[in-house]
Amino acid sequence: MKKVLYPMRIRSNVRTDPFRWTRPQPSTDSAAIAPRRGKGGSKKRVVWIDIDNSPHVPFFLPIIGELRNRAIELVLTARDTYQVCDLIEYFSLPCRVVGRHYGKNKLLKVLGNCVRAAELLPIAIAKRPDLAISHWSRSQVLVSKSLAIPTLVMHDYEHSTKTWFIEPDWILMPDVIPPRAMSRKGDRVLQYHGLKEDVYVPGFCPDPSILRQLGLSGTDLVVTLRPPATEAHYHSQEGGVLFDDTLRFLSEQPDVRAVVLPRSEKQKQEIRENYRELICSERVIVPEQAIDGLNMIWFSDLVISGGGTMNREAAALGVPVYSIFRGKIGAVDKYLAETGRLVLIENGNDLRTKLRLAHWRRPERPTDTSNGVLESIVESVVSILEYGQPTPLMGPS
Question: What is the pTM of this model?
Fold first, then answer.
């Protein structure tokens, strides 16, 4: 399978400051803004990035590329959960894999985070990074707090479980989410205009060979379907029922081929067992190996997902997308629904009244809607490394 990598580049024709910095203007005293230096006067430029879930792999790829371009030393770790290992291998990302998923039991989740933190501790002690970055890796934040390492957490779902006692130093999130929804310290919240998917979607390069690889023809009406995250704390049984209703409904429609992208090997086996007849009839396709999710979305006529990231990737690409997520709807998905970029499916009846099964009039290439989010994230990271805080030049756009 051909690998489709996201180009790592800086664009000069985009807005460079899409962040809204909610913190009061810091002091301009020279001591307050003096660059942080290590032994011998040399600047410390070591960043630790921890990849905690499958969507974080494509998200961090361009960020990693830009930081490398700035000669910043990187320490990369990842957790063996869902399809993280498959994706870091697919994108040839050199990560040290530490820890695993402990299931959906809350007590085991807490225990697992503590065990993984203990496993990460020697790495952090040896490398002594100047900044720890994640998309809400609780284990990394716990380790960083114990070693006084500054932490920058990026997040875009305000209903995830909060652990206030290990709150990160800075939180970076879309501006449609109220600052206090993520943190009790509103002065430590950075906000940007757009979606987190705007970091990597603009670098996407379509590869039509994926259709041939999956045995799809030009006449098929292709639907990409993502099951709910059954092991997540926010999963509801209602979502599983709606996923089943959706797959059964699609199988009854002429010319529809559904490509199901499971979240884990366990979920893949369950789908193969529960929908064996549909798979044997080739109405439903479950890829054997990890594939480029963006590429699959782009060559689909519509996307139906029980989770947030794939919905927002489709919205960023302009592909018709429907959400069957039945947990608490976050501010980002509400915003996309209100602006007509996402349709919320709440029950089986909505499948018949809201779902539009039609071929998507695909443009030649994706529209660049990045708004400079990638560039500003990198500038924020560099500013923290140099001055111990995000640049005071960031403000409302």
Answer: 0.81
